[in-house]
């Protein structure tokens, strides 16, 4: 259950603020939080999360117990632009982009072993044939 977004036109530092809020949360909690978040990166991350959930549905996985295992924000390409400055010079402006990788996983409930376990013995093929 992966989804990725490449070359999103916002600096990784700003996108990581939103990503750190969502790590480890269930899909339902994350979608509810993104609806009321006042950050520009909220909408693209919400679309990315919906895409990952639909990928999980197509694989036949229950979406009720999915959670965000990993939401990684990496540096994308940097577009270099010039801003005119005094005396005919120019200052460089870096327009940074981000790569987002989202990984969903299922919550697994721990099952305690009962004290009365049945142990299966291995039977060799020779004893079966006799």
**Secondary-structure element sequence?**
EHHHEEH
Q: What is the CATH H-level superfamily? A: Ribosomal protein L22/L17
Biggest sheet: strands side by side, in what order? Answer: 1-3-2
Largest sheet composition: 3 strands, antiparallel
What is the first-to-last residue Cα distance? 50 Å
Helix percent reads 25-40%
DSSP strand tally: 3
* SS-derived structural category: alpha+beta
Question: Could you please say which CATH topology applies here?
Answer: Ribosomal Protein L22, Chain A
**How large a portion of the residues is in β-strands, by DSSP E?**
25-35%
Mean pLDDT across the residues is 89
- The poorly predicted ranges are 126-130
Quickly name the level 1 CATH class: Alpha Beta
Question: What is the 3D shape?
Answer: elongated
Please give the radius of gyration in angstroms.
24 Å
Number of domains: 1
CATH second-level architecture: Alpha-Beta Complex
Helix tally?
Answer: 4
Secondary structure blueprint with pairings:
Blueprint: E1 2-8, H1 12-22, H2 27-35, H3 42-58, E2 66-84, E3 90-106, H4 125-129
């Amino acid at each position: 259950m992966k989804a990725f977004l490449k070359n999103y036109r916002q600096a990784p530092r700003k996108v990581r603020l939103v990503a750190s809020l969502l790590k480890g949360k269930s899909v339902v909690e994350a979608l509810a939080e993104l609806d009321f978040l006042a950050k520009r990166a909220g909408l693209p991350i919400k679309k990315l999360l919906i895409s990952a959930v639909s990928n999980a549905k197509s694989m036949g996985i229950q979406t009720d117990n999915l959670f965000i295992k990993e939401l990684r924000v990496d540096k994308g390409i940097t577009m270099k632009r010039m801003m005119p400055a005094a005396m005919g010079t120019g200052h460089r402006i870096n327009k940074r982009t981000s790569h987002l990788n989202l990984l969903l996983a299922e919550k697994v409930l721990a099952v305690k072993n009962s004290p009365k376990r049945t142990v299966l013995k291995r039977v060799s093929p020779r004893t079966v044939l006799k």
